[in-house]
Amino acid sequence: MPTPKKEQELALLEEKFQRSKGLVFTDFRGLSAQEMVELRRLFRKRDLEYRVVKNTLARLAAARTGLEIEQFLVGPTGVLFGFSDAVLPFKLATEVARRYKQYAIKGGLLEGQVVEAAEAARIATLPSREVLLARLAFVLQAPIQRLATDLSAIIRRLAIALDAVRKKREESEAQPTAAPAAQAEAVEPVAESSEESEQQEIAENKEEG
User: Fold this and answer.
1) Among 2, 15, 22, 72, which is disulfide-ready with 106 (CB 3.0 to 4.6 Å)?
2) What are 80-102's pLDDT values in tens digits?
3) What is the pTM of this model?
4) DSSP per residue over 52-65, as a string?
């Protein structure tokens, strides 16, 4: 039975196993204490957590959480936890392994799936969560931008059509004002010819009288 202190450590390790989206198990033999401090600082800046664990407690925590990691718990074990990005732990662990030859990747878990050491480098080449989100945002935004452009074009065409209708209406309303004047001019000669006819008839009547 684990002691109360060990039980607390075990509960903490279980919680980290359950929350992690990506896990990388490493062998840190050969690294100095200063190099380990630098690694932890590097990982912390990228929102990752690096812990040296005891294999016995790690086996118990894995058994309680249903993780199959027995093959990675041999020799000194450091675990790199990624709680928000499943790929990032593999990326940084691979970078560190290139920088420090003593730092070796044993394997890991990607969204609960076992990743052998030989596959870790391939996983490291996958896009990170930030990159995937940026790509997704671009894909989702592109149709919206096209829709906005199409709507703007439709609004412009509608405005042009309405302006043309307005101008045509103004022209049609202006035409009847000139017509009465023309009609008046056409009536005046008729009136003058009637007066001449009346005067001629009066003159003829006088002559007959």
Assistant:
1) 72
2) 999 999 999 999 999 999 999 89
3) 0.61
4) EE-HHHHHHHHHHH
